[in-house]
Design a protein that fits this description.
With 317 residues, the protein is of the alpha/beta class. The chain has one domain: TIM Barrel. It contains eleven helices and ten strands. Strand 5, helix 4 and strand 6 form a beta-alpha-beta unit. It is globular. The protein starts with a helix and ends with a helix.
Length: 317
Amino acid sequence: MKVTQLLAENKETIISFEILPPTKGKSIESIYTHLNPLMEYNPAFINVTYHRAEQILKTRRDNSLEWVEIRKRPGTVGICAAIMNKYKVEAIPHLICGGFSKAETENALIDLDFLGIKNVLALRGDAAANEKFFTPHPQGHRYAEDLVRQIVALNNGQYMEEDIIDGAKTDFCIGVAGYPEKHMEAPNMDTDIYYLKRKIELGADYVTTQLFFNNTHYYNYIKRCNELGVTVPIIPGLKPLTNKKQLTTIPRIFNTEVPVEFCNEMMKAKTEEACEQVGTEWLLHQCRDLLKNKIPVLHFYTLGKPRVIYNVLKQLF
């Protein structure tokens, strides 16, 4: 079922999760171990991130160096199929521009369509680890809106090969990313929302936000989006912050502020367990406020912290 249908048919707030594929060499059981406790709360869908290849320096036998391309977290398409088969829940793969050609993207979409996957999240993706700025694949897309165009084209039966006549039409529901505190590369919020609106006009159906720790940013973002003509569902992305190191790393990576009162409570904590409890309580506070304001979805970035998410959900429901 499409995300837009799930939102339309559910009167109560629904739950969803986002997970990482395991690093190469680990089995699908690591995903099941991660998800099994969380499935008690009947998520409506589960997002699975997609990861570009990275260039790393390796030493040859003659001690010279060479750049080698590796993909640390493969398996997004297979994981989505496994999740749908095991749990009977919708799986949503991320599709990214970085590191992928248009042809590779089209083939991935065809695979997803054959598997009966009806939703995708279209993202530009981050710069590679060895790049200061994002660089697209030479035969790929530079912007998420270009990726949206390709997905919409396939939904209309338009393939890259011009000799394909009357091609089968896919039927993907398309999600895109939104930034309640603006994308770090955007000069201002209105410009950021302008480009979001372009993705919606091209055919995107809903928005999932970057994580935030101050719900006011999310409410203001919805208000400003609506004022500028973006009226599709905007799903809040939520992540636990559970240690003191994250007080500096999370804002730098995700361009988000950590509220003063949250920082103060975290700095008072004397143990790792106490830090995790502070993060759990803050996420619980965020969720209760969102529920009070009748937000239709609570979307959790689990990312190695399923126990924290479980404990929050246990207290909410």
